[in-house]
Amino acid sequence: MSENKKIKVGITHGDINGISYEVIIKTLMDPRINEMCVPIVYGSPKVAAYHRKVLNIANFSLNHIRTATEANPRRANIINCVSDDIRVDLGKPSREAGEAALAALKRAIADMQGNLIDVLITGPINKATIHSKEFHFHGHTEYIEQSFGEQGDSLMMMVGERLRVALVTTHIPLAEVPQQITAGKIYSKIRILEESLIRDFAIRKPRIAVLGLNPHAGEDGVLGSEEEAEIIPAIGRLRDENRLVFGPYPADGFFGAGDFTRFDAVMAMYHDQGLAPFKSISFEKGVNFTAGLPIVRTSPDHGTAYELAGKDKASPDSFRQALYMAIDIYRNRQRYGEMTAHPLKSSEEKEE
Questions:
Q1: Domain residue extents for the chain
Q2: Angle at the Cα of 318 (from 316 to 321), degrees rounded to 5?
Q3: Nearest Cα residue to 183 out of 145, 238, 141, 223
Q4: Predicted confidence (pLDDT) at residue 350 exceeds the cutoff of 50
Q5: Mean pLDDT for the chain overall
Q6: What is the SS3 assignment for 87?
Q7: Residue ranges in 200-256 assigned as alpha helix (H)
Q8: Are 74 and 34 in contact (CB under 8 A)?
Q9: pTM for this structure?
Q10: Where are the beta strands (DSSP E) in 126-193?
């Protein structure tokens, strides 16, 4: 592995009416980015120019290319994925914006499958406008999972400087969560989380905390049965395998008392249980990472933020961290692959 290799970073433009282009442009304006990677935006030169004009950014431009193989290693590049008559309507959801987001995502995934880019960073989308016969998923995570794995292979993980939170269930109605909380699913998701912490974050023996589903983690069955019937058996099985998994913990006290600082990651049962405290603690620089897949995909932890579109008020910090993290994880995977490709033989094997 060459530590000096420039990684090709594919970036999808997300919703063109939101803040995606603002955070992408503000990140790529830093010349140091071009020293560590080759950025390739999958989007629209016309839309990019429109956002630059609205934001009054005159000292930056994207290098127009037709394919990822033409990328200039010293520039931030852009591939046109939409028609030239596309229309931007800042701050408003539109079907046209959803179609443009999907077109960019499809092109980037095809290039990732063709090994033309090394990592993928996705700009935020509007789940309502992108939804179609082609995109009948709850979000990026599920769509990308189908493209590179099988259902259930991936894990949504939010990563910040002080906290990593993974989710057993993701974008489903709250009423459907209890039936999805099974010992088998919890076990498999924690196994994916542990493997990712080892391979992607270089943590040798990760400590994982598991939250309960019900208030007070069920209060010994008084406030719900899921802890006793599903969560505790899954934890027990993992502990029997000598894995450092602990819980279940009541979510309110766990985060309120700062207990999360004693663990390498936290497994939450449902979306808001994990993301509400995460965004309270790490919103400015949080990153959404899809663990468990053969590719590296990250995204900022915020949405389209229509209310900020075109006002030069959007912070690029989360997107910038998503780019840095994608590069770090890519390199960690390479190192892990090298270390495990030729493991040291035991003394017994050497004697034989």
A1: 1-152+293-352, 155-288
A2: 105
A3: 238
A4: no
A5: 92
A6: coil
A7: 226, 232-240, 251-256
A8: yes
A9: 0.91
A10: 155-159, 164-167
